[in-house]
Amino acid sequence: MRADPLTMSLETVIAASPMLGHMLEDRSSVRNRQEPALVDLFRDAGTVELSNPDQEHLFLVAPLDLLVVETDGRKQFHITETNGTGIGGLTNLPLDVVSTVLDGLTEMATRLPEPNALVLAAISGMESNKNPRHNHLVHEKMLYAEALKRGFEKHGHSAKVLTMAQLEQDPKAIDTDQPTVVLGYIKELLNSLGMNRDGRLRLFGRPVDGAVNDRFCLNVLSRFGHQVDMTRFATMNRCFVPGADKGKAYELLNEFAAENKDDLFPNKVRFSRAGNRPALIAGVLNWLREGRKAVIKAQGTGLGHGIEFFLDPEEAVDSIIDKIDHSIKVTEAYYGAIGGAFPYTVCEFVDTCTVPRNGHPLFGHKYEVRVVVYRDGATLKAIPGITKISSQGYDADKSNRLSLINNITTSAEAKKREGTDFMLPLCNEETLDILGIDADQMKRVCAYCSRYVRYILDQVQAQPERFGLAGVWGDLNQDDRSLVLKRA
Predict the structure, then answer these.
(1) Could you tell me if 263 and 389 lie in one domain?
(2) Among the four residues 51, 95, 308, 445, which has the most C-beta atoms within 10 Å?
(3) What is the three-class DSSP state of 374?
């Protein structure tokens, strides 16, 4: 069988990227060092059945980030973020995992009942108007678009892929009766979306039928006051709220942990919520008065935007308020969050491990691990993806932001280096040895993460109103709800 003459490899796209606008990042060096035997070992341990068949329509993928703490020679893992379909670094993973995730997107397109459905594939980046940041993994979202396109074409429809850059020049290009995928940065899409009185979203006048990217979906609901008709807006992860809101994720995690005791994980995450600036200031001050170190995290943001650390109980009140106001201004400027990206989450600062291997280039740098949970048919599977390492060594007496944040993009941009310089493949014996994590621990971590995601799906399915997914949904009978789940 002859190859399609109009296709090309991702490696070719990445190699040619400087000619096409901006450099794309090749993650094959990480992917190729994921050891198949460890991938299989951890994935087998992290495989659980979904609670029921309807959950197949609720979930695709969630990369969970976990801080690693060591006390008296014993490690413990703290889940800090659930994340979702906006995953950056899909191509860090073995190709069979990439294929399974993309197949899930193809399934999504085949389920949409509208013959000319419009789906938005949202990309992180371009948050700042003054210093716009191009996403160096945008080719991964191109894979998303291609997978969706394949799904539409399975029904015999010729599908179209457009970009927001193109539509801003020629909005009429969206006026077509073909099923369409629009690739765009989150901020571009939000600024161009509208909503009818009946809760139907529109992009340049055309009805929107679905979207991929948890943070984008939560930002859409927030932008339109949770009045979006969720029966006509399919989201690839229906659990996108905890995927983009740390506080909601912690709330669910505490419920799960109470019934699933494991000495590798804390029994509870200590956190509080703040719905406005005065509550946020009071929350931080209360934590410090109690002698606890605190971190604040905004809702629906990325790249560490809005995160501030309060590690000195004696820090001046003026300084604390200045840091809080800076956080709010950043979220306003970067995400269009009027008044700030509230509600904020206030949580306890966890003093995590640093890379312990003397002589390693990143010795003494804090790190966290990423475990990717994805759906494969009627099962959830988990595999360790990467270790994310801060770009600056940690000094408890002189800690700074770059030594405390393990975000790959932030590290790469701060140091003007490749993102791969600040990560290690986690299904790799050398990496586990460097970090002092044994295979049995990682097997238990994978199993815990899969079961936690299943718990989230159980709650989303049983209590949609808890996640702002009620509205019209709440008026449906059970048969109609089942139909909506299959569409969603």
Answers:
(1) yes
(2) 445
(3) strand
